[in-house]
Amino acid sequence: MKNKKLFLKMYKYKGFYLMFLPVLVFAIIFFYAPMFGIRFAFTNYNGIKTPDFVGLDNFVRMFGVPSFWKAFFNTIQISVIKLVLTTTIAVVVSILLNEIINIHFKKAVQTIIYLPHFMSWVVTASLFTLILAPTSHGLVNTMLINMGFINENEMIYFLGKESTWRPVYYLINIWKETGWQTVIFMATLAGINTELYEAASIDGAGRWQKMRYITFPALANTILTVFILNLAKVMNLFESAFVLQNDAVLNTANVLETYIYYQTFNSGSIPNYGYTTAVGLFKSLVGCVLVLVCNQWSKKVRDGRGIV
Amino acid sequence: MREKKTLFNYINAFIFIIFAFLIFVPLWKVLVDSVDLKTAYGMRLWPAEFGWDGYASVFRNPTLSRPLLVSVFTTIVGTAVALTLCTMGAYVLIQWNMPGRTFFANMLLFTMIFNGGMIPTFLVLKSLHLTNTLWVVILFPALNVYNLVLMRNFFEGIPASLFESAELDGCSPMQTFLRIVLPMSKAALASIGLMFAVTYWNDYTHYKLYITDSKLYNFQMKLRSIVMGSDLPSAQGNANENTVSNAAIIVIIIPFMILYPFLQKYFVKGVNIGAVKE
Known about the structure:
In chain A, 70% of the residues lie in helices and 0% in strands. Chain A has helices at 2-12, 14-36, 57-63, 66-98, 103-114, 121-131, 139-146, 162-190, 194-202, 207-231, 239-244, 250-253, 256-265, 273-301. The longest helix of chain A is centred in the N-terminal third of the chain and has 33 residues, at 66-98.
Protein backbone atom coordinates (compact mmCIF):
# COMPACT_ATOMS: atom_id res chain seq x y z
CA MET A 1 0.00 0.00 0.00
CA LYS A 2 2.69 2.40 1.04
CA ASN A 3 4.69 1.67 -2.11
CA LYS A 4 1.68 2.40 -4.22
CA LYS A 5 1.17 5.73 -2.50
CA LEU A 6 4.78 6.68 -3.07
CA PHE A 7 4.51 5.61 -6.67
CA LEU A 8 1.43 7.75 -7.20
CA LYS A 9 3.20 10.70 -5.62
CA MET A 10 6.22 10.18 -7.83
CA TYR A 11 3.95 9.90 -10.83
CA LYS A 12 2.50 13.28 -9.95
CA TYR A 13 6.00 14.73 -10.08
CA LYS A 14 6.99 13.00 -13.34
CA GLY A 15 7.45 16.32 -15.15
CA PHE A 16 9.95 17.47 -12.55
CA TYR A 17 11.97 14.26 -12.73
CA LEU A 18 12.18 14.71 -16.46
CA MET A 19 13.46 18.27 -15.97
CA PHE A 20 16.07 17.11 -13.51
CA LEU A 21 17.34 14.40 -15.85
CA PRO A 22 19.88 16.60 -17.71
CA VAL A 23 21.34 17.82 -14.41
CA LEU A 24 21.56 14.24 -13.22
CA VAL A 25 23.33 13.12 -16.40
CA PHE A 26 25.86 15.94 -16.13
CA ALA A 27 26.51 15.20 -12.46
CA ILE A 28 27.06 11.51 -13.19
CA ILE A 29 29.35 12.00 -16.18
CA PHE A 30 31.44 14.88 -14.91
CA PHE A 31 31.50 14.32 -11.15
CA TYR A 32 30.56 10.76 -10.24
CA ALA A 33 32.21 8.81 -13.07
CA PRO A 34 35.63 10.32 -12.22
CA MET A 35 35.19 9.19 -8.63
CA PHE A 36 35.25 5.60 -9.85
CA GLY A 37 38.54 6.41 -11.53
CA ILE A 38 40.06 6.76 -8.07
CA ARG A 39 40.63 2.99 -8.16
CA PHE A 40 43.61 3.73 -10.45
CA ALA A 41 45.40 5.11 -7.38
CA PHE A 42 45.98 1.49 -6.35
CA THR A 43 47.32 0.39 -9.74
CA ASN A 44 50.22 1.15 -12.07
CA TYR A 45 47.91 2.34 -14.87
CA ASN A 46 49.72 4.22 -17.64
CA GLY A 47 47.04 4.37 -20.34
CA ILE A 48 48.62 1.65 -22.45
CA LYS A 49 48.67 -1.73 -20.78
CA THR A 50 46.02 -3.14 -18.49
CA PRO A 51 46.61 -1.89 -14.95
CA ASP A 52 48.00 -4.20 -12.26
CA PHE A 53 46.90 -3.88 -8.68
CA VAL A 54 49.84 -2.59 -6.65
CA GLY A 55 48.17 -1.96 -3.29
CA LEU A 56 49.49 1.07 -1.49
CA ASP A 57 52.76 1.26 -3.47
CA ASN A 58 51.88 4.63 -5.03
CA PHE A 59 51.22 6.14 -1.62
CA VAL A 60 54.45 4.73 -0.17
CA ARG A 61 56.36 6.21 -3.12
CA MET A 62 54.55 9.54 -2.81
CA PHE A 63 55.38 9.96 0.89
CA GLY A 64 59.03 9.28 0.09
CA VAL A 65 59.32 11.96 -2.61
CA PRO A 66 60.65 15.32 -1.31
CA SER A 67 59.11 17.32 -4.18
CA PHE A 68 55.67 15.98 -3.19
CA TRP A 69 56.04 17.26 0.37
CA LYS A 70 57.41 20.53 -0.97
CA ALA A 71 54.31 20.96 -3.15
CA PHE A 72 52.03 20.00 -0.28
CA PHE A 73 53.45 22.57 2.15
CA ASN A 74 53.70 25.21 -0.60
CA THR A 75 49.98 24.73 -1.29
CA ILE A 76 49.01 25.31 2.32
CA GLN A 77 51.41 28.20 2.92
CA ILE A 78 50.61 30.07 -0.29
CA SER A 79 46.83 29.59 0.02
CA VAL A 80 46.56 30.54 3.66
CA ILE A 81 48.84 33.59 3.48
CA LYS A 82 47.03 34.75 0.34
CA LEU A 83 43.67 34.32 2.05
CA VAL A 84 44.69 36.19 5.21
CA LEU A 85 46.26 39.05 3.23
CA THR A 86 43.41 39.61 0.79
CA THR A 87 40.70 39.29 3.46
CA THR A 88 42.45 41.68 5.87
CA ILE A 89 43.04 44.30 3.22
CA ALA A 90 39.51 43.92 1.88
CA VAL A 91 38.10 44.54 5.38
CA VAL A 92 40.24 47.65 5.91
CA VAL A 93 39.33 48.96 2.45
CA SER A 94 35.62 48.34 3.10
CA ILE A 95 35.62 50.16 6.43
CA LEU A 96 37.44 53.16 4.96
CA LEU A 97 35.32 53.14 1.81
CA ASN A 98 32.23 53.23 3.98
CA GLU A 99 33.47 56.52 5.49
CA ILE A 100 33.58 58.25 2.11
CA ILE A 101 30.89 60.90 1.98
CA ASN A 102 30.79 61.80 -1.71
CA ILE A 103 28.64 59.09 -3.31
CA HIS A 104 29.97 59.65 -6.85
CA PHE A 105 33.57 59.36 -5.75
CA LYS A 106 32.70 56.18 -3.86
CA LYS A 107 30.99 54.67 -6.93
CA ALA A 108 33.96 55.57 -9.13
CA VAL A 109 36.41 53.93 -6.73
CA GLN A 110 34.25 50.80 -6.53
CA THR A 111 34.01 50.55 -10.31
CA ILE A 112 37.79 50.67 -10.65
CA ILE A 113 38.71 48.31 -7.84
CA TYR A 114 36.19 45.64 -8.91
CA LEU A 115 37.56 45.56 -12.44
CA PRO A 116 40.60 43.23 -12.10
CA HIS A 117 38.40 40.45 -10.68
CA PHE A 118 36.96 39.92 -14.16
CA MET A 119 40.30 39.62 -15.89
CA SER A 120 41.27 36.00 -16.52
CA TRP A 121 44.39 34.64 -14.86
CA VAL A 122 46.02 34.45 -18.28
CA VAL A 123 45.40 38.15 -18.84
CA THR A 124 46.58 38.97 -15.33
CA ALA A 125 49.75 36.93 -15.74
CA SER A 126 50.43 38.45 -19.19
CA LEU A 127 49.93 41.94 -17.85
CA PHE A 128 52.32 41.49 -14.95
CA THR A 129 54.84 39.57 -17.03
CA LEU A 130 55.08 42.69 -19.21
CA ILE A 131 55.09 45.20 -16.36
CA LEU A 132 57.64 43.28 -14.31
CA ALA A 133 59.86 42.39 -17.28
CA PRO A 134 63.57 42.81 -16.60
CA THR A 135 63.98 44.97 -19.71
CA SER A 136 63.60 48.63 -20.61
CA HIS A 137 59.95 47.80 -21.46
CA GLY A 138 59.17 46.91 -17.87
CA LEU A 139 57.50 49.60 -15.79
CA VAL A 140 58.74 48.43 -12.39
CA ASN A 141 62.39 47.91 -13.28
CA THR A 142 62.59 51.27 -15.06
CA MET A 143 61.06 52.90 -12.01
CA LEU A 144 63.60 51.28 -9.69
CA ILE A 145 66.42 52.46 -11.96
CA ASN A 146 65.08 56.02 -12.12
CA MET A 147 64.75 56.11 -8.36
CA GLY A 148 68.32 54.94 -8.03
CA PHE A 149 67.68 51.64 -6.24
CA ILE A 150 69.34 49.53 -8.91
CA ASN A 151 71.41 50.26 -11.98
CA GLU A 152 70.72 49.16 -15.51
CA ASN A 153 72.54 45.85 -15.44
CA GLU A 154 70.96 44.67 -12.19
CA MET A 155 67.37 44.52 -13.38
CA ILE A 156 65.28 42.12 -11.33
CA TYR A 157 63.41 39.22 -12.95
CA PHE A 158 60.67 39.28 -10.31
CA LEU A 159 58.72 36.24 -11.52
CA GLY A 160 61.84 34.19 -12.19
CA LYS A 161 63.57 34.48 -8.83
CA GLU A 162 62.76 32.29 -5.84
CA SER A 163 63.15 35.15 -3.37
CA THR A 164 60.72 37.48 -5.13
CA TRP A 165 58.18 35.07 -6.61
CA ARG A 166 55.93 34.69 -3.57
CA PRO A 167 55.74 38.38 -2.57
CA VAL A 168 54.91 39.23 -6.18
CA TYR A 169 52.32 36.44 -6.29
CA TYR A 170 50.63 37.84 -3.17
CA LEU A 171 50.69 41.38 -4.56
CA ILE A 172 49.11 40.24 -7.82
CA ASN A 173 46.39 38.45 -5.86
CA ILE A 174 45.78 41.56 -3.80
CA TRP A 175 45.55 43.59 -7.00
CA LYS A 176 43.10 41.16 -8.55
CA GLU A 177 40.82 40.10 -5.71
CA THR A 178 40.69 42.55 -2.79
CA GLY A 179 38.40 44.97 -4.61
CA TRP A 180 35.84 42.32 -5.38
CA GLN A 181 36.04 40.88 -1.86
CA THR A 182 34.82 44.22 -0.51
CA VAL A 183 31.42 43.68 -2.21
CA ILE A 184 30.24 41.29 0.47
CA PHE A 185 31.60 43.47 3.30
CA MET A 186 30.08 46.62 1.82
CA ALA A 187 26.71 44.83 1.69
CA THR A 188 26.99 44.05 5.40
CA LEU A 189 28.00 47.63 6.19
CA ALA A 190 25.02 48.96 4.22
CA GLY A 191 22.80 46.89 6.49
CA ILE A 192 23.93 48.58 9.73
CA ASN A 193 21.19 50.68 11.25
CA THR A 194 22.26 54.35 10.97
CA GLU A 195 20.46 55.09 14.22
CA LEU A 196 23.25 53.24 16.00
CA TYR A 197 25.77 55.78 14.71
CA GLU A 198 23.52 58.71 15.60
CA ALA A 199 22.94 57.39 19.12
CA ALA A 200 26.70 56.89 19.52
CA SER A 201 27.34 60.46 18.33
CA ILE A 202 24.89 61.80 20.90
CA ASP A 203 26.74 59.80 23.55
CA GLY A 204 29.88 61.57 22.45
CA ALA A 205 31.58 58.71 20.57
CA GLY A 206 34.26 59.78 18.10
CA ARG A 207 34.90 58.35 14.64
CA TRP A 208 37.34 55.70 15.83
CA GLN A 209 35.11 54.60 18.67
CA LYS A 210 32.21 54.21 16.26
CA MET A 211 34.35 52.13 13.91
CA ARG A 212 35.67 50.08 16.79
CA TYR A 213 32.39 49.43 18.59
CA ILE A 214 29.78 49.48 15.81
CA THR A 215 31.28 48.91 12.36
CA PHE A 216 33.82 46.25 13.20
CA PRO A 217 31.54 44.03 15.34
CA ALA A 218 28.90 44.18 12.61
CA LEU A 219 31.49 42.92 10.14
CA ALA A 220 32.99 40.24 12.38
CA ASN A 221 30.47 37.58 11.46
CA THR A 222 30.83 38.21 7.73
CA ILE A 223 34.62 38.17 7.98
CA LEU A 224 34.55 34.81 9.70
CA THR A 225 32.08 33.44 7.15
CA VAL A 226 34.19 34.56 4.21
CA PHE A 227 37.31 33.21 5.87
CA ILE A 228 35.79 29.79 6.56
CA LEU A 229 34.28 29.51 3.07
CA ASN A 230 37.65 30.21 1.48
CA LEU A 231 39.66 28.12 3.93
CA ALA A 232 37.68 25.11 2.74
CA LYS A 233 39.06 25.68 -0.76
CA VAL A 234 42.78 26.08 0.00
CA MET A 235 43.77 22.76 -1.60
CA ASN A 236 42.25 23.74 -4.97
CA LEU A 237 44.94 26.26 -5.82
CA PHE A 238 45.86 25.75 -9.48
CA GLU A 239 45.38 28.26 -12.25
CA SER A 240 46.80 31.37 -10.57
CA ALA A 241 49.99 29.58 -9.57
CA PHE A 242 50.24 27.70 -12.86
CA VAL A 243 50.18 30.74 -15.13
CA LEU A 244 52.67 32.71 -13.01
CA GLN A 245 55.27 30.01 -12.38
CA ASN A 246 58.18 28.83 -14.49
CA ASP A 247 60.89 26.21 -14.12
CA ALA A 248 63.22 28.53 -12.24
CA VAL A 249 60.87 29.03 -9.29
CA LEU A 250 59.19 25.62 -9.00
CA ASN A 251 60.87 25.01 -5.66
CA THR A 252 58.87 27.79 -4.06
CA ALA A 253 55.90 27.99 -6.45
CA ASN A 254 54.90 24.40 -7.14
CA VAL A 255 51.59 23.43 -5.53
CA LEU A 256 49.89 20.02 -5.45
CA GLU A 257 47.67 20.54 -8.49
CA THR A 258 50.55 21.85 -10.59
CA TYR A 259 52.74 19.00 -9.30
CA ILE A 260 50.11 16.53 -10.51
CA TYR A 261 49.92 18.33 -13.85
CA TYR A 262 53.66 18.31 -14.49
CA GLN A 263 54.07 14.72 -13.31
CA THR A 264 51.33 13.57 -15.70
CA PHE A 265 51.63 15.73 -18.79
CA ASN A 266 55.15 17.17 -18.69
CA SER A 267 57.26 14.41 -17.21
CA GLY A 268 58.80 13.49 -20.55
CA SER A 269 58.07 9.79 -20.11
CA ILE A 270 54.95 7.63 -20.23
CA PRO A 271 52.55 9.16 -17.69
CA ASN A 272 52.05 7.17 -14.53
CA TYR A 273 48.32 7.81 -14.07
CA GLY A 274 48.30 5.53 -11.05
CA TYR A 275 50.80 7.63 -9.15
CA THR A 276 49.28 11.02 -10.03
CA THR A 277 45.78 9.73 -9.21
CA ALA A 278 47.13 8.75 -5.79
CA VAL A 279 48.51 12.27 -5.26
CA GLY A 280 45.15 13.68 -6.37
CA LEU A 281 43.29 11.38 -3.98
CA PHE A 282 45.48 12.52 -1.09
CA LYS A 283 44.81 16.15 -2.06
CA SER A 284 41.05 15.55 -2.29
CA LEU A 285 40.98 13.80 1.10
CA VAL A 286 42.84 16.64 2.83
CA GLY A 287 40.49 19.10 1.10
CA CYS A 288 37.48 17.06 2.20
CA VAL A 289 38.63 17.02 5.85
CA LEU A 290 39.19 20.79 5.66
CA VAL A 291 35.67 21.34 4.32
CA LEU A 292 34.10 19.20 7.04
CA VAL A 293 36.10 20.89 9.80
CA CYS A 294 35.22 24.31 8.40
CA ASN A 295 31.60 23.21 8.14
CA GLN A 296 31.47 22.32 11.84
CA TRP A 297 33.18 25.59 12.67
CA SER A 298 30.71 27.46 10.48
CA LYS A 299 27.75 25.81 12.22
CA LYS A 300 29.13 26.91 15.56
CA VAL A 301 29.62 30.57 14.62
CA ARG A 302 26.66 30.95 12.27
CA ASP A 303 23.84 29.52 14.41
CA GLY A 304 23.70 26.14 12.77
CA ARG A 305 24.24 27.19 9.17
CA GLY A 306 26.87 25.03 7.52
CA ILE A 307 28.70 25.88 4.35
CA VAL A 308 27.45 22.94 2.34
CA MET B 1 22.16 64.59 8.74
CA ARG B 2 25.07 65.95 6.79
CA GLU B 3 28.43 65.25 8.32
CA LYS B 4 31.06 67.92 8.45
CA LYS B 5 34.12 67.13 6.40
CA THR B 6 37.14 66.72 8.61
CA LEU B 7 40.81 66.20 7.92
CA PHE B 8 40.12 62.47 8.14
CA ASN B 9 37.78 62.64 5.14
CA TYR B 10 40.39 64.34 3.02
CA ILE B 11 43.12 61.88 3.98
CA ASN B 12 40.71 59.02 3.36
CA ALA B 13 39.76 60.34 -0.07
CA PHE B 14 43.45 60.76 -0.86
CA ILE B 15 44.15 57.14 0.16
CA PHE B 16 41.47 55.96 -2.24
CA ILE B 17 42.77 58.09 -5.09
CA ILE B 18 46.14 56.37 -4.63
CA PHE B 19 44.57 52.92 -4.21
CA ALA B 20 42.36 53.22 -7.29
CA PHE B 21 45.34 54.59 -9.22
CA LEU B 22 47.49 51.59 -8.28
CA ILE B 23 44.73 49.18 -9.33
CA PHE B 24 44.18 51.01 -12.60
CA VAL B 25 47.79 51.63 -13.66
CA PRO B 26 48.59 48.09 -14.88
CA LEU B 27 45.52 48.14 -17.13
CA TRP B 28 46.19 51.67 -18.34
CA LYS B 29 49.83 50.83 -18.99
CA VAL B 30 48.90 47.94 -21.27
CA LEU B 31 46.43 50.12 -23.15
CA VAL B 32 49.03 52.85 -23.66
CA ASP B 33 51.81 50.46 -24.66
CA SER B 34 49.52 48.77 -27.16
CA VAL B 35 49.38 51.97 -29.24
CA ASP B 36 53.00 53.03 -28.62
CA LEU B 37 55.35 52.21 -31.48
CA LYS B 38 58.42 53.46 -29.70
CA THR B 39 60.00 50.67 -27.67
CA ALA B 40 61.52 50.92 -24.20
CA TYR B 41 58.17 52.01 -22.75
CA GLY B 42 59.62 52.43 -19.29
CA MET B 43 57.46 54.63 -17.09
CA ARG B 44 55.57 56.42 -19.86
CA LEU B 45 51.84 56.70 -19.15
CA TRP B 46 51.17 58.23 -22.57
CA PRO B 47 52.34 56.87 -25.94
CA ALA B 48 55.50 58.48 -27.33
CA GLU B 49 54.79 57.47 -30.89
CA PHE B 50 51.13 56.74 -31.48
CA GLY B 51 50.11 54.06 -33.98
CA TRP B 52 47.66 51.20 -34.52
CA ASP B 53 50.23 48.80 -35.99
CA GLY B 54 50.05 46.48 -32.97
CA TYR B 55 46.34 45.91 -33.56
CA ALA B 56 46.92 45.54 -37.28
CA SER B 57 49.33 42.70 -36.50
CA VAL B 58 46.74 41.03 -34.29
CA PHE B 59 43.82 41.31 -36.69
CA ARG B 60 45.64 40.60 -39.94
CA ASN B 61 47.00 37.43 -38.48
CA PRO B 62 44.84 34.49 -39.64
CA THR B 63 45.95 32.34 -36.68
CA LEU B 64 44.36 34.81 -34.28
CA SER B 65 40.89 35.20 -35.76
CA ARG B 66 40.10 31.53 -35.21
CA PRO B 67 40.83 31.53 -31.43
CA LEU B 68 38.72 34.66 -31.11
CA LEU B 69 35.86 32.89 -32.86
CA VAL B 70 36.25 29.86 -30.59
CA SER B 71 36.04 32.16 -27.57
CA VAL B 72 32.87 33.84 -28.83
CA PHE B 73 31.23 30.54 -29.80
CA THR B 74 31.97 28.67 -26.57
CA THR B 75 30.93 31.66 -24.47
CA ILE B 76 27.53 31.96 -26.14
CA VAL B 77 26.70 28.25 -26.35
CA GLY B 78 28.23 27.49 -22.94
CA THR B 79 26.30 30.21 -21.17
CA ALA B 80 23.06 29.00 -22.74
CA VAL B 81 23.64 25.38 -21.70
CA ALA B 82 24.81 26.38 -18.22
CA LEU B 83 21.82 28.64 -17.56
CA THR B 84 19.41 25.95 -18.74
CA LEU B 85 20.88 23.37 -16.36
CA CYS B 86 21.14 25.86 -13.53
CA THR B 87 17.54 27.10 -13.72
CA MET B 88 15.93 23.70 -14.34
CA GLY B 89 17.92 22.10 -11.53
CA ALA B 90 17.14 24.94 -9.14
CA TYR B 91 13.43 24.79 -10.02
CA VAL B 92 13.26 21.07 -9.27
CA LEU B 93 15.10 21.58 -5.98
CA ILE B 94 12.39 23.93 -4.66
CA GLN B 95 9.74 21.18 -5.03
CA TRP B 96 9.90 20.45 -1.31
CA ASN B 97 7.42 17.56 -1.37
CA MET B 98 8.94 15.76 -4.33
CA PRO B 99 10.08 12.25 -3.37
CA GLY B 100 13.87 12.11 -3.70
CA ARG B 101 14.37 15.88 -3.56
CA THR B 102 16.73 15.66 -0.58
CA PHE B 103 18.67 12.88 -2.27
CA PHE B 104 19.16 14.95 -5.43
CA ALA B 105 20.18 18.02 -3.41
CA ASN B 106 22.70 16.05 -1.39
CA MET B 107 24.01 14.36 -4.48
CA LEU B 108 24.83 17.76 -5.97
CA LEU B 109 26.21 19.21 -2.74
CA PHE B 110 28.51 16.23 -2.23
CA THR B 111 30.38 17.18 -5.41
CA MET B 112 31.37 20.42 -3.70
CA ILE B 113 33.11 18.48 -0.94
CA PHE B 114 34.76 15.67 -2.81
CA ASN B 115 35.77 15.03 -6.41
CA GLY B 116 37.64 12.49 -8.41
CA GLY B 117 40.55 14.80 -9.04
CA MET B 118 42.36 16.04 -12.11
CA ILE B 119 43.63 12.76 -13.53
CA PRO B 120 40.56 10.49 -13.14
CA THR B 121 38.45 13.30 -14.63
CA PHE B 122 40.84 13.54 -17.54
CA LEU B 123 40.72 9.77 -18.07
CA VAL B 124 36.91 9.68 -18.02
CA LEU B 125 36.64 12.53 -20.51
CA LYS B 126 39.23 10.86 -22.68
CA SER B 127 37.44 7.52 -22.67
CA LEU B 128 34.23 9.32 -23.65
CA HIS B 129 36.14 10.85 -26.58
CA LEU B 130 35.33 14.32 -25.29
CA THR B 131 38.94 15.48 -25.14
CA ASN B 132 40.05 17.47 -28.15
CA THR B 133 36.52 18.54 -28.94
CA LEU B 134 34.83 21.81 -28.06
CA TRP B 135 32.15 19.77 -26.26
CA VAL B 136 34.41 19.35 -23.28
CA VAL B 137 34.98 23.08 -22.73
CA ILE B 138 31.27 23.80 -23.27
CA LEU B 139 29.71 20.98 -21.26
CA PHE B 140 32.16 20.36 -18.45
CA PRO B 141 31.91 23.80 -16.78
CA ALA B 142 28.14 23.96 -17.47
CA LEU B 143 27.00 22.29 -14.25
CA ASN B 144 28.05 24.67 -11.50
CA VAL B 145 26.55 23.59 -8.19
CA TYR B 146 27.40 26.84 -6.45
CA ASN B 147 25.47 28.90 -9.01
CA LEU B 148 22.64 26.37 -8.91
CA VAL B 149 22.32 26.91 -5.16
CA LEU B 150 22.32 30.70 -5.68
CA MET B 151 19.54 30.30 -8.24
CA ARG B 152 17.58 28.06 -5.90
CA ASN B 153 17.87 30.69 -3.15
CA PHE B 154 16.44 33.22 -5.57
CA PHE B 155 13.58 30.95 -6.67
CA GLU B 156 12.62 30.38 -3.03
CA GLY B 157 11.58 34.03 -2.92
CA ILE B 158 8.83 33.48 -5.53
CA PRO B 159 5.44 33.34 -3.73
CA ALA B 160 4.11 29.77 -3.50
CA SER B 161 0.61 30.99 -4.35
CA LEU B 162 1.76 31.66 -7.92
CA PHE B 163 2.76 28.03 -8.34
CA GLU B 164 -0.51 26.83 -6.85
CA SER B 165 -2.67 28.93 -9.14
CA ALA B 166 -0.60 27.86 -12.14
CA GLU B 167 -1.19 24.25 -11.19
CA LEU B 168 -4.93 24.87 -10.82
CA ASP B 169 -4.93 26.41 -14.28
CA GLY B 170 -3.54 23.14 -15.56
CA CYS B 171 0.02 24.25 -16.26
CA SER B 172 2.54 21.45 -16.55
CA PRO B 173 5.81 21.86 -14.57
CA MET B 174 7.59 22.95 -17.75
CA GLN B 175 4.88 25.52 -18.55
CA THR B 176 5.01 26.94 -15.03
CA PHE B 177 8.79 27.11 -15.34
CA LEU B 178 8.71 28.93 -18.66
CA ARG B 179 5.76 31.24 -17.99
CA ILE B 180 6.15 32.09 -14.32
CA VAL B 181 9.55 31.19 -12.88
CA LEU B 182 11.79 32.50 -15.66
CA PRO B 183 9.96 35.80 -16.30
CA MET B 184 10.04 36.53 -12.57
CA SER B 185 13.77 35.89 -12.29
CA LYS B 186 15.20 38.27 -14.86
CA ALA B 187 17.59 39.88 -12.37
CA ALA B 188 18.97 36.54 -11.22
CA LEU B 189 19.20 35.26 -14.80
CA ALA B 190 21.20 38.35 -15.77
CA SER B 191 23.53 38.07 -12.76
CA ILE B 192 24.22 34.37 -12.97
CA GLY B 193 24.24 34.37 -16.77
CA LEU B 194 26.93 37.05 -16.72
CA MET B 195 28.98 35.07 -14.21
CA PHE B 196 28.83 32.08 -16.54
CA ALA B 197 29.73 34.21 -19.56
CA VAL B 198 32.82 35.58 -17.80
CA THR B 199 33.83 32.05 -16.77
CA TYR B 200 33.58 30.77 -20.32
CA TRP B 201 35.32 33.78 -21.83
CA ASN B 202 38.17 33.52 -19.30
CA ASP B 203 38.52 29.74 -19.40
CA TYR B 204 42.07 28.51 -19.69
CA THR B 205 42.40 25.52 -17.39
CA HIS B 206 39.94 23.28 -19.25
CA TYR B 207 41.61 24.00 -22.58
CA LYS B 208 45.04 23.39 -21.11
CA LEU B 209 43.97 20.06 -19.60
CA TYR B 210 41.71 18.61 -22.26
CA ILE B 211 42.63 20.14 -25.60
CA THR B 212 45.88 19.58 -27.43
CA ASP B 213 44.68 20.38 -30.94
CA SER B 214 45.75 23.99 -31.52
CA LYS B 215 42.87 24.48 -33.99
CA LEU B 216 40.50 24.36 -31.02
CA TYR B 217 42.36 26.86 -28.80
CA ASN B 218 40.47 29.87 -27.52
CA PHE B 219 41.93 33.35 -27.28
CA GLN B 220 43.18 32.89 -23.72
CA MET B 221 45.35 29.97 -24.87
CA LYS B 222 46.54 32.00 -27.83
CA LEU B 223 47.30 35.04 -25.69
CA ARG B 224 49.30 32.88 -23.32
CA SER B 225 51.48 31.53 -26.09
CA ILE B 226 51.93 35.01 -27.58
CA VAL B 227 53.08 36.58 -24.33
CA MET B 228 55.26 33.61 -23.43
CA GLY B 229 57.01 34.29 -26.72
CA SER B 230 56.53 30.88 -28.25
CA ASP B 231 53.98 32.00 -30.76
CA LEU B 232 54.49 35.62 -31.70
CA PRO B 233 52.46 36.72 -34.68
CA SER B 234 54.63 38.45 -37.23
CA ALA B 235 54.68 42.13 -36.38
CA GLN B 236 53.21 44.38 -39.05
CA GLY B 237 54.40 47.83 -39.98
CA ASN B 238 56.20 49.57 -37.16
CA ALA B 239 54.93 47.39 -34.34
CA ASN B 240 57.40 45.43 -32.27
CA GLU B 241 56.72 42.20 -30.39
CA ASN B 242 55.84 43.88 -27.11
CA THR B 243 53.34 46.18 -28.76
CA VAL B 244 51.70 43.14 -30.34
CA SER B 245 51.48 41.38 -26.94
CA ASN B 246 49.91 44.45 -25.37
CA ALA B 247 47.45 44.78 -28.25
CA ALA B 248 46.47 41.11 -27.88
CA ILE B 249 45.73 41.63 -24.17
CA ILE B 250 43.53 44.62 -24.97
CA VAL B 251 41.67 42.69 -27.67
CA ILE B 252 40.65 39.96 -25.19
CA ILE B 253 39.57 42.36 -22.42
CA ILE B 254 38.01 45.15 -24.47
CA PRO B 255 34.54 43.58 -24.97
CA PHE B 256 34.24 43.24 -21.24
CA MET B 257 35.66 46.69 -20.48
CA ILE B 258 33.04 48.31 -22.71
CA LEU B 259 30.11 46.39 -21.22
CA TYR B 260 31.34 46.46 -17.63
CA PRO B 261 30.05 49.89 -16.52
CA PHE B 262 26.52 48.88 -17.58
CA LEU B 263 26.72 45.40 -16.09
CA GLN B 264 28.47 46.14 -12.81
CA LYS B 265 25.24 46.27 -10.79
CA TYR B 266 24.23 42.79 -11.97
CA PHE B 267 27.54 41.32 -10.88
CA VAL B 268 27.23 42.95 -7.46
CA LYS B 269 23.65 41.68 -7.20
CA GLY B 270 24.88 38.18 -7.98
CA VAL B 271 27.09 38.15 -4.92
CA ASN B 272 24.27 39.37 -2.76
CA ILE B 273 21.66 36.82 -3.90
CA GLY B 274 23.35 34.40 -1.55
CA ALA B 275 23.91 36.96 1.19
CA VAL B 276 20.33 38.19 1.31
CA LYS B 277 19.21 34.83 2.66
CA GLU B 278 21.10 35.24 5.94
